[in-house]
């Protein structure tokens, strides 16, 4: 309101100042004074009145009264400023801009009244005097129409711009939503995704690949990565890295690299596809990195297992075939010789049978238990007696420190299998002159037993893996000690199926201790038997 009123107020104030210098007497004119009082009053009202609380069209009183202001001032200064009527342009613009066609009509009518009423009420007005001033309403009407057209055009353009702005905001919001969805999808997948431009600069790197890169270098930058060839030892030249190849426009699949040091690295299978712009020119590449470390390790374990199992099958089979050939093709030099040969063949056949049984047990998970009341001490004595011959042949002493009745509810066959495996391993990995000690004790709610040897021991790196199926440490493989890595896995499963636990502690070249804890189980009554 005030901004629309100020031009007219300022103009009349300027006229009054000019009159004060040119014709001071005109300032005493009643009409001019009324005009100035009215225009200043309207300006003050524009500031003080709460127009937003008044009826919607109340503000029209101000521009309409401005016509009276201009009319009074025009009549008072007609002899000094003949063109003062042009000040009507200010309320005309105001009305035309705010009220459209209605404002144009009001502008015409108000201007007509402003110039016509003084002529009609004048005593000496001639017809030519009356007709001459009516050019001003026509000029004001043309100005009002021009303002109306301009304002309508601006309003239409503003509406279009608002509509376009809304569409852009909506498109931008949808774009952000799609970007968030894409980022979430890329972060959910377990594959590293990396997009680069034609110069090899990063465009997009998802969370998985950032983790891949952080494993190798704290900075996580591609140029700082420690890349190795697929053999895990040969440093990979930077120009042969997956990103460098992709930045050259190459497309490839299943390109194997290792990320990290030779001692600790991850195996990544990389795939790259080139991108082109609308003209078909190379614009960058998208790479995918799949972590295949577990698969590669599994394949290595498989290869080791195949080699080990082949050796384990071949040795007893060759022995069986050799002794059977001796029985079939050579005469008996002394009584009982063939029987001894057949006994050796039978022993090797039983070894094969046990190996096949272990393989079937592991593959089928058939480790069910059939618990019954049993004394662990009796079972330990039987296992020690069974292992005595093998220990003696290897020069290893077995010391049984278990004493006293140790009652629990368990499967004697399975617990015996645990003892046999632990004793067999302890004897197998102990040097000649070594000692294997077995202990057992009651802990209150459970029974514990331990088997300690003075053998080659297990490294800290291999210790967490010893219960893994088919695992054999490098030291064991290098020592050519027979085995396929099934025993401890079977032991752990049997113990866990009883609700127990097994732990291992070891020091290289000093020996190892395996401790088994089994719950006493449910109470089972029996004559003379203690309660569990």
Description of the molecule:
- This protein has 532 residues and is an alpha+beta fold.
- The chain contains 15 helices and 13 strands.
- The strands form three sheets. It has a six-stranded antiparallel sheet, sandwiched between helices. Strands 8-10-11-13-12 form a five-stranded mixed sheet, covered by helices on one side. A two-stranded antiparallel ribbon has the order 7-9.
- The longest helix has 54 residues, at 135-188.
- Mean pLDDT is 82; it is low at 522-532.
Break the fold down into its secondary structure elements and pairings.
Elements: H1 2-22, H2 30-48, H3 61-76, H4 89-99, H5 101-121, H6 127-131, H7 135-188, E1 191-197, E2 202-205, H8 207-216, E3 227-228, H9 242-247, E4 252-260, E5 265-276, E6 282-291, H10 293-329, H11 337-364, E7 372-375, H12 376-393, E8 397-400, E9 407-410, H13 412-428, E10 435-442, E11 446-453, H14 474-479, H15 487-497, E12 501-507, E13 511-519
Helix pairs in contact: 1-2, 2-3, 3-4, 3-5, 4-5, 4-7, 5-7, 10-11, 12-13, 13-15
């Amino acid at each position: 309101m005030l901004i629309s009123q100020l031009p007219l107020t300022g103009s009349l104030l300027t006229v009054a100042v000019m009159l004060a210098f040119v014709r001071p007497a005109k300032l005493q004119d009643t009409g001019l004074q009324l005009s100035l009082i009215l225009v200043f009053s309207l300006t003050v009202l524009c500031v003080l009145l709460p127009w937003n609380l008044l009826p919607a069209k109340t503000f029209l009183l101000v521009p309409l009264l401005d016509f009276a202001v201009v009319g009074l001032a025009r009549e008072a200064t007609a002899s000094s400023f003949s063109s003062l009527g042009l000040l009507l342009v200010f309320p005309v613009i105001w009305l035309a801009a705010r009220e459209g066609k209605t404002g144009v009509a009001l502008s015409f009518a108000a201007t007509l009244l402003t110039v016509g009423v003084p002529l009609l009420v004048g005593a000496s007005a001639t017809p030519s005097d009356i007709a001459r001033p009516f050019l001003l309403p026509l000029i004001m009407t043309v100005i009002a129409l021009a303002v109306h057209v301009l304002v309508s055009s601006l309003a239409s353009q503003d509406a279009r711009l608002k509509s376009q702005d809304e569409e852009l905001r909506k498109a931008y919001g949808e774009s952000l939503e799609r970007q968030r969805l894409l980022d979430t999808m890329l972060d959910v997948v377990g594959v590293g995704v990396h997009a680069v431009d034609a110069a090899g600069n990063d465009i997009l790197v998802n969370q998985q690949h950032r983790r891949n890169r952080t494993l190798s270098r704290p900075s996580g930058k591609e140029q700082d990565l420690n890349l190795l060839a697929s053999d895990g030892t040969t440093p990979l030249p930077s120009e042969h890295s997956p990103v460098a190849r992709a930045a050259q426009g190459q497309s490839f699949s299943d390109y194997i690299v290792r990320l990290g040091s030779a001692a600790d690295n991850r195996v990544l299978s990389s795939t790259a596809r080139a991108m082109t712009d609308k003209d078909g020119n190379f614009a960058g590449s998208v790479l995918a990195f799949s972590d295949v470390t577990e698969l590669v390790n599994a394949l290595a374990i498989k290869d080791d297992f195949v080699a080990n199992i082949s050796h384990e099958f071949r040795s007893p089979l060759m022995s069986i075939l050799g002794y059977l050939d001796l029985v079939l093709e050579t005469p008996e030099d002394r009584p009982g010789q063939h029987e001894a040969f057949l006994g050796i063949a039978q022993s090797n056949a039983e070894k094969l049978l046990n190996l096949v049984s272990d393989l079937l047990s592991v593959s089928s998970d058939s480790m069910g238990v059939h618990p019954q009341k049993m004394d662990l001490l009796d079972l330990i004595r039987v296992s020690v007696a069974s292992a005595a011959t093998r220990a003696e042949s290897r020069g290893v002493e077995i010391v049984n420190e278990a004493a006293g009745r140790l009652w629990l509810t368990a499967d004697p066959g399975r617990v015996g299998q645990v003892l046999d495996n632990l004793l067999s391993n302890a004897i197998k990995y102990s040097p000649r002159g070594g000692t294997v000690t077995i202990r057992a004790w009651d802990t209150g709610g459970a029974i514990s037993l331990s088997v300690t040897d003075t053998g080659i021991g297990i490294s800290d790196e291999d210790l967490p893996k010893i219960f893994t199926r088919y695992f054999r440490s490098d030291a064991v493989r290098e020592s050519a000690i027979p085995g396929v890595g099934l025993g401890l896995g079977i032991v752990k499963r049997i113990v866990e199926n009883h609700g127990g636990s097994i732990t291992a502690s070891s020091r290289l070249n000093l020996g190892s201790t395996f401790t088994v804890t089994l719950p006493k189980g449910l109470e089972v009554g029996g004559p003379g038997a203690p309660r569990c």
